[in-house]
Amino acid sequence: MLYIVLVLVLAALGLLVTALITASSLWAWVSIGLSVLAGLILVADWLRRRRRSTASTPAAAEPEAEPAPADEPEPASAEAVEKPAEEEQTVLIPAAGDLGDPADTPEPDPAPVEAVETPAEAGEEPGTEGEPGEEETPAADLAVLADLEDEVVVVDEHPRYHLRTCIWLGSRDTIPIGVGEARQLGFTPCDRCSPDATLVAAHR
Q1: Secondary structure of the chain as H, E, C letters
Q2: What is the pLDDT of residues 86-105, one digit of tens each?
Q3: What is the domain count for the chain?
Q4: Residue 11, domain extent
Q5: What is the mean pLDDT of residues 111-136?
Q6: Residue 6 resides in a domain
């Protein structure tokens, strides 16, 4: 259909050019007629496509029926309400003559004694719990320590410096540092391994 319209339009255009060249009104009217025919064909094709699309459109779906409400539970009967949830169990007490030999009665098990967990069982090394105190260093030893470059060790986020043999260190990660630098950074000596007294005694 579109090919026919295209041919008619081209023919109308050719006749219009011919009419302008020859100055003949006949070709002009023929060109106008072909243009009108092409327009009518386009309108007819548009109406035909519209009818086809309308016919192929599915009908609107019917609204789904609302589900029926669920059955409400029946109210409990008055007898069921008055009946207790649990019946009391009656304990029968044997008569005096039916009692067995007291020796046959099993004795109650003694209460279990809770075991005390030692530091070794808890995974802690002995001597490593708690923060060690600060060693008291005399003023005379402080002057000697200022000139020493002997190495001590420190533990991150702890204020003391220690000898490598200090029992408090255990398996902690240590950082080696000079004793003079450790004091300048604000670390203080451990009172368990006494690094100040040990280093001063070694250099005297």
Answers
A1: CHHHHHHHHHHHHHHHHHHHHHCCHHHHHHHHHHHHHHHHHHHHHHHHHHHHHHHHCCCCCCCCCCCCCCCCCCCCCHHHHHCCCCCCCCCCCCCHHHCCCHHHCCCCCCCCCCCCCCCCCCCCCCCCCCCCCECCCCHHHHHHHHCCCCEEEECCCCCEEECCCCCCCCCCCCEEEEHHHHHHCCCEEECCCCHHHHHHHHCC
A2: 455 555 555 554 555 555 55
A3: 2
A4: 2-54
A5: 58
A6: yes
